[in-house]
Amino acid sequence: MNLFLDAIAWIFSGEPGAQLDPIPVALAEHLLYTFVSVLIAAVIAIPAGWAIGHTGRGRDIAVAVSGAARAIPSFGLLLLLVLVMGVLHKPEAAVITFVLLGIPSILAGAYSGFEAIDRSVIDAGRAMGMTAWQVLWRIEVPLGMPLLVAGLRAATLQVVATVTIAAYVDLGGLGQYIIVGIPLRDFAMVLGGAILVAALALVLDGLFALLQHLVVRRGVRVRSADGRVAASRPAAATT
């Protein structure tokens, strides 16, 4: 308990010590790496996932690639990229590492969202004369959005936790308090840094949970029997 109280006192002291960045600066750095990495991962993974879900082709390849990407040790990859790209390109190496970490969850959320849609809703849209493009943007994208947001949520939590290792190559972030505190045996600093990372992850998780609730369109329901997304009427997905 004393260590926990010491960690809380360290957080609110305003003086991290050891010539480290102030907590607001470290927080901003942590968020910057997180959001940039997730954004780039989303730009890559969402169109690919939608293409897979819409056409029904390439799913096996996507699953294999995602599984391989999940198996890559982020810490080892970061160090390898820094060695290959050079110390002047450490930020780029870190972003590449975090992007590769975020892609599998976003990709899975994108194509799973389309696969979970009740095919009768899509057939109804086509029967109404919708083109393939209209089916994509008016039915599949809106109805698949909750699972996509879930994928973004999972990717963000994975990345925000892993950005901690960026401090190992002197890129700042909240991880610097953990990386520096361990050799100094300043366990209040180490625990304080861990608490800050956990708190940030919880805040982001709460925001994505709210967003996931908001993107469920009115008239959309989930069938408890098979987990496939349907709609109370096709028109609900066409506006």
Short summary:
This protein is mainly alpha-helical.
Write down the Rg.
Answer: 21 Å
Quaternary state of this entry equals single chain
Biggest sheet, in brief?
2 strands, antiparallel
Q: What amount of the residues lies in strands?
A: under 5%
Counting helices, strands and paired strands, the structural category is mainly alpha
Percentage of residues in helical conformation: over 70%
Notable characteristics:
single chain, mainly alpha, MetI-like fold, 9 helices
Give a topology summary:
Layout: H1 2-13, H2 23-55, H3 59-71, H4 74-85, H5 90-115, H6 119-127, H7 132-162, H8 175-184, H9 187-214, E1 220-222, E2 229-231
Q: How would you describe the overall organization of this protein?
A:
The protein has 239 residues and is an all-alpha fold. It has a single domain, classed as MetI-like fold (Orthogonal Bundle), CATH 1.10.3720. Helix content is 73%, strand content 3%. The protein contains 9 helices and 2 strands. The chain has helices at residues 2-13, 23-55, 59-71, 74-85, 90-115, 119-127, 132-162, 175-184, 187-214; strands at residues 220-222, 229-231. The radius of gyration is 21 Å and the shape is elongated. The termini are far apart.
